[in-house]
Amino acid sequence: MIRRDRRQTCLPRYRSRPADTAEAFARDTVERLLAAMTRHGSFADAVQGAPGFDSNVLPDGIRLVSHRAQMTGAVLARDTAGLSFAGLTAERLAHDVMDPVLRDLFGEAAHWRGMGALLTGMLETPRLLLRFECETALVDPLFGGDALRGGALILQTVPQHAPLH
Question: Among 9, 19, 54, 68, who pairs with 25 as Cys (CB 3.0-4.6 Å)?
Answer without folding.
Answer: 19
